[in-house]
Amino acid sequence: MKTSDTRAIARALGVSERTVWNWWATDSPRTARLALWWLSRPGHNMWDVEMANRTQLAVSTNRILWQTLKAYDAGTRYRGNLACRYGEAACNDLKACEDQLA
């Protein structure tokens, strides 16, 4: 951590720079650790990376769900076409319908 960061953090928390350095070096109170994390550059970087990863995961999940939905919709339409050709009873035995189409 840079001295300028330490100075800014100490000013924001209303403590001395020495206290901030001691908090970084030792087991400090939980609230002090959280404040250091939120106010420091490594904390900001870690937060940015976490948010980028979560965004990427959400986008990937969305894409997979849409692909699954499209595949399900295509399968439903296929079965619907079979039902129209061979009657409603044919839909209960998809294998038999597929054999008849082949």
Describe this structure in words.
- It is built from five helices and no strands.
- It is rod-shaped, with a radius of gyration of 30 Å.
- Helices cover 82% and strands 0% of the residues.
- The chain is mainly α and 102 residues long.
Q: How much strand?
A: under 5%
Biggest beta-sheet profile: none
CA-CA gap between termini? 70 Å
- Based on secondary structure, the structural category is mainly alpha
**Helical content (DSSP H or I, runs of 4+):** over 70%
Number of helices: 5
> Which whole number gives the mean pLDDT?
76
Question: How would you describe this structure in keywords?
Answer:
102 residues; 0% strand; mainly alpha; 5 helices; rod-shaped
Compose a concise summary of this entry.
The protein has 102 residues and is mainly α.
Strands, helices and their partners?
Layout: H1 3-13, H2 17-25, H3 30-39, H4 41-86, H5 94-101
Helix pairs in contact: 1-2, 3-4
